[in-house]
């Protein structure tokens, strides 16, 4: 037994009853679903649908980036505006997946060249922050049977900020 569901989008025609202000002082702007429906010229039901599609597309981010207890953030508004401009949710998800994750890629490694060689393929050095994991570096030096003098020298160099000498 199958049931077909038809989704009907109704435009909101009532006047805005909840005041909101655009704040430019740097504090977080928040909106209700009703306010977003007026800004976006869609029904509240569409706002809820947009919110779900945004959360699916940005699945690695916490929901609080977009909404909390029915209150939506400025980021949610911007994401909904972008979603509305796309042909469909798949196009929006594709757009999200092509966004840069960060200005600087931070990588943690134990000093093994193989790891750093892989990381260097991701992004140029100016956009990369490499952090050497001292604990695993020391663990690996103990595994290969380095002398205590060599291990202590490596620790000393590391703590002095001379990682390449370690």
Number of strands: 5
- Identify the overall geometry: elongated
Kindly report how far apart the N and C termini lie: 69 Å
Q: Please tell me the overall pLDDT.
A: 79
How many helices? The count is 7
For the report, how would you describe the main beta sheet? 3 strands, antiparallel
Quaternary organization:
single chain
Order of helices and strands: EHHEEHHEHEHH
What helical percentage do the residues reach? 40-55%
Strand order within the widest sheet?
1-3-2
Report strand %: 5-15%
Low-confidence stretches: 7-27
Indicate the structural class: mainly alpha
CA gyration radius, whole angstroms: 25 Å
Structure description:
The protein has helices at 33-40, 44-57, 74-85, 89-97, 113-122, 134-143, 148-159; strands spanning 30-31, 67-68, 71-73, 105-109, 128-132. Helix 2 packs across helix 3 (74-85) and helix 2 runs parallel beside helix 4. The chain has 166 residues and is mainly alpha-helical. The termini are far apart. It is built from seven helices and five strands, in the order βααββααβαβαα. It is elongated, with a radius of gyration of 25 Å.
């Amino acid at each position: 037994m199958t049931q077909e569901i038809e989704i009907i989008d109704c435009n909101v025609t009532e006047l805005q009853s909840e005041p909101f202000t655009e704040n430019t002082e740097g504090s977080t702007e928040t909106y209700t679903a009703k306010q977003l429906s007026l800004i976006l010229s869609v029904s509240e039901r569409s706002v809820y649908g947009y919110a779900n599609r945004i959360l699916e597309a940005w699945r690695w981010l916490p929901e609080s980036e977009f909404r909390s207890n029915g209150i939506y953030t400025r980021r949610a508004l911007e994401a909904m505006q972008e979603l509305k401009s796309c042909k469909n949710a798949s196009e929006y998800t594709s757009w999200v997946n092509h966004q840069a994750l960060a200005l600087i890629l931070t990588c943690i490694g134990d000093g093994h060249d193989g790891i750093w060689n892989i990381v260097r393929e991701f992004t140029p050095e100016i956009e990369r922050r490499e952090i050497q994991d001292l604990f695993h570096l020391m663990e690996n030096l103990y595994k290969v049977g380095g002398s205590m003098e060599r291990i202590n020298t490596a620790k000393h160099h590391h703590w002095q900020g001379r990682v390449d000498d370690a």
